[in-house]
Amino acid sequence: MDPFSDIIALLRPHAVFSKPITGRGKWGVSYSAYAAPGFAIVLKGRCWLSIEGADPVPQERGDFVLLPASPAFSLLSEPGAACVPGIPSFSSIRHGDPEGEPDFEMLGGSFQLEPVNAPLLLALLPGMIHIRAEDGDTSRLARIIDLIMDECANDRPGREMMLQRLLEVMLVECLRWPSIAPGALPAGLLAGMQDPALASVLRAMHTNVRAGWTVAELAKLAGMSRSAFSARFSETLGCAPMEYLSRWRMTLAQDALSRGGKPLERLAEEIGYESASAFSTAFRRRLGCSPGMFARSRRAGNGH
Question: Using CB atoms within 10 A of its CB, is residue 216 exposed (0-12), middle (13-18) or buried (19+)?
Fold first, then answer.
């Protein structure tokens, strides 16, 4: 199984909204952080985006931005423009001069992720992914967003399923974008997938999570000595190989438990534990509660 596909499947993005954002003249707006991923693509003109007080970054026509956690940010017509507080809205927004043809146009949107798995996205990505039109053809992303906008504007049968699938496609397109600079990435899966040797190991672990992997076997897959592999994996992924495997198994376990309907013995076998007892011990050690308690708390939180 491809690790990116695994991650997106667990995130289950849904409940999207999108809107046109336009401006004319000199303007600036600042937004507080909010707990939802945001995305935007510039259709006309240019603006400047500043994340949590950082230096503004120009956004040109065709540029695409993904904010995995939507931290506090400012959007400006030019550096130094005075900003007014912005309020998140589901309707179209006009900045600056309210009269005349806008000299700036953007499509912006936000969506929700499966709450129990949402921290995955934050661990995968930097605070902002900026895909520049000058670095490659962003027309694929533009077409995906066009489809998202079209689904948002119409109440067709299967709308929610279509939106979820389109968001999944958009996220995968971002994750595999070739011009994302490795140096801009935090330690994690995305950085590991940009290393060919580690990518083969990650695919193997995700394809067969129940296997009794050893560091020696994984090092052989990477074509490296055990010590060199362990050091490179830890530096790139932010944890040791067996720790990564354990974390991924527990991520799968939390997702399965939050949805319910699977016997503990079967779940333990599927993610590589010899018995339900061994799985329960590992789960309690890592999360501080039993699998049953975790499942009950999730059902209570969902109103079941």
Answer: exposed
Q: Biggest alpha carbon distance in the chain?
A: 69
Residues 120, 117: Cα–Cα separation, whole Å: 6
Q: Within a domain: residue 225?
A: yes
End-of-domain residue from the set 136, 154, 184: 184
> Are 271 and 301 in the same domain?
yes
* Residues 221-247: b if buried by 16+ CB within 10 A, e if exposed: bbebebeebbebbeebbbeebeebbbe
pLDDT digits (tens, 9 = 90+) for 102-153: 999 999 989 999 888 888 877 777 788 889 998 888 888 889 988 988 888 8
**Angle subtended at Cα 237 by Cα 233 and Cα 242, rounded to the nearest 5 degrees:** 65
The 10s digit of each residue's pLDDT in 72-112 is 999 999 999 999 999 888 889 999 999 999 999 999 989 99
Identify whether the C-beta of residue 115 lies closer than 8 Å to the C-beta of residue 297. Answer: no
Q: How many C-beta atoms lie closer than 10 Å to residue 80's C-beta?
A: 10
Q: How many CB atoms lie within 10 A of CB 268?
A: 23
Q: Are 276 and 265 in contact (CB under 8 A)?
A: yes
Helix intervals (H) in 53-138 = 119-124
Torsion, Cα of 128, 134, 135, 141 (10° steps):
60
6 falls within a domain = no
What DSSP character marks residue 186? P
Tell me the residue range of the domain where 77 lies. 13-184
pTM of the model: 0.81
Whichever domain contains 203, its CATH number is 1.10.10.60
Q: Is 125 exposed, middle or buried (0-12, 13-18, 19+ CB in 10 A)?
A: buried
Q: Are residues 49 and 175 in the same domain?
A: yes
Q: Is residue 190 part of a domain?
A: no
